[in-house]
Design brief:
The complex is a heterodimer of chains A (400) and B (257).
Chain A: H1 12-38, H2 49-60, H3 63-73, H4 83-104, H5 113-116, H6 123-149, H7 154-161, H8 163-183, H9 201-223, H10 234-261, H11 273-293, H12 296-300, H13 302-324, H14 340-363, H15 396-399
Helix pairs in contact in A: 1-14, 2-4, 2-13, 3-4, 3-8, 3-9, 4-6, 4-14, 6-8, 8-9, 9-10, 9-13, 10-11, 11-13
Chain B: E1 5-10, H1 19-27, E2 45-49, E3 52-56, H2 65-69, E4 75-77, E5 83-85, H3 95-99, E6 106-107, E7 116-117, H4 123-127, H5 133-137, E8 143-147, H6 148-161, E9 181-184, H7 204-211, H8 214-246
Parallel strand pairs in B: 1-9
Antiparallel strand pairs in B: 1-8, 2-3, 4-5, 6-7
Classes of the chains: A mainly alpha (400), B alpha+beta (257).
Chain lengths: 400, 257
Amino acid sequence: MKIRLLPRITRWHPIASTLILAGTVAAIARFTYGLGATTNLSDEFPWGLWIGFDFLGIGLAASGFTIVAAVHLFHAKEYEPIVRPAILTAFIGYMLVVLVLILDLGRPDHFWHPLVMWNPHSVMCEISWCLMLYTSVLSLEFAPIVLERFNILWPIKWIHAISLPLMIFGVLLSTLHQSSFGSLYLIVPNRLHALWYTPLLPVLFFISCLASGISMILLESLIFSRGGRDLLPTRLRANLAKVIAVILALYFVVRVENLLARGALQELTTLTYFSLAFYAEMLIGFVIPFGLLVVERVRNSRRGLYAATLMVVVGFALNRMNTAITGLETYPAQTYFPSLIEIFIMLGITALGFSAFSFIVKHLPIFEPVAVTPRVRQEAVTARPEPVFLTRHGGDLESS
Amino acid sequence: MTEKKAMLIDLTLCVGCNVCQGACKEENQLPPREEKYLSLTAYTALSKYNDLYIRRMCQHCDVPTCVSVCPVAALSKAEAGPVAYDGEKCIGCRYCLQACPYHVPKYEWSSTKPRIQKCKFCAPRLAKGLQPACAEACPTGATIFGGREELLLEAARRVSAEPTKYVPRIYGKDDVGGTSMLYLSPVPFEQLGFDSRLGKIPMPMLTMSALSKVPNVLSVGGVMLGGIWWITNRRSEVAAFEASEKKGETPRPEDKP
């Protein structure tokens, strides 16, 4: 069955190539002329679009640790088919963020300094370490897929041998840096607008990344269902949707209760630049998708789920951009809008990510639809189930 | 232990002659033109509020926000007071610009190898036993240099001697945990563009409340995840075993484990 109403991007190749080319030119300009000439960043606004993009990329890549934890640590084995897409999404997401971070640094040639020059009081230092370590973990989690393709099997055994501690480490690192992106702003209570500043920023960042990560993977599974066969049966998709609804509700309650407790709710009584931005992110990202996802019919429908998860992702993007940009503007005195070069670099890198994703999906077994009944429970009992990841129970790798 | 140094800036004595900026620029070999705001070429500047001149510069906080946020420790706090910067370490993340509660560091945006610039508290002069160039140059005594403790006593003495002349507050005594720059003013500091929201707790404490939980997350989280894996793994093993028994494998005698 073909789903006609889902938007399909045609002529993707020329668009992507143009964006990547434009991004490359913009990046060359950035390195040649420096940040001042090519960006709208300033002493008053030292962080802009690129930091927002980093938050977004890392948040959407949260599927990497949530799905791995669900399937391999909590043994929800029926979700196995989305483990590979989740790891690939995370891997590409982190690569893109590292790329943007290096472009964003004033001294890209010093990017390795945090590895040798420590400051345990700095959130930025903790984030650098987490990013580096977690990207390594993701590489190890992703490596077997590539190695299998080229039939180099001996390193896979080694990776499997350490897979349990590796996965636990990955989940812990993710928990730390997903929340630490929020902690970055704990130190600017005088700058960040009261609608976004709260001592609970790390907690809120963590909760929201869970929702956005799972939404992202649901979106992918809807878009990339192959040959009409679904990656996940409707029942399991609906279950994930339920989980998202619960997380959205939790986020909403914590966020609003916190606004109330800090007396910031009065900021919302008038329509201002800030309150509008707040309403936009809360309605699009949390309230409306929650309203949709509590309806069983929506959870069971592809179109409904597509719309709801897309809204979660968009609302999440708004939330991160608001925290990174809107909340720090002092409208109308001090505002920031990214320069064309900043935008082109971001679009180019996004296009690079999408292209890498579709290239890898085409050449490696990432999206493998399964039959409705999971085969996991019928494993042989003679051998103790290993903490394996990235190998399919039931052998659909070999059969594909 | 080195004595903590400070500067006392008495706004009632400042006449706005800008000699301090001139001396600063000469000391730091900066272009000598007069500037109204802190910039790459002005580590100190006088801004005017009604009839008062307020001298701005790096506050050299006791618990500096910039030092705490720098991921590579390019900024450091010397025992004597100065907050120093090492451009060779700096990676250019600009967190210090974002975090400084006084908006002090300025960035060399136009350079391809940018650094930050700010007041250095004349650290090289202090090391030689001299006072900072601005304090030495000030003709009216609006800026004086000395040990932090003795300057605090001096400031308190001035306020209690002439309570009508000053507001009863020494700015910098314990603001954001105390700073090396101490201010006396005839009008409330909020009217002079001093941020009243900063409070007395050092800003880095806000971050530490989250960062200090990192070891806990790692240890407790690690044990918890390992435990969950163990339990759920055991459960699926048992489920698989029971399923295989039901399938009609030879039933085992009751007494056998």
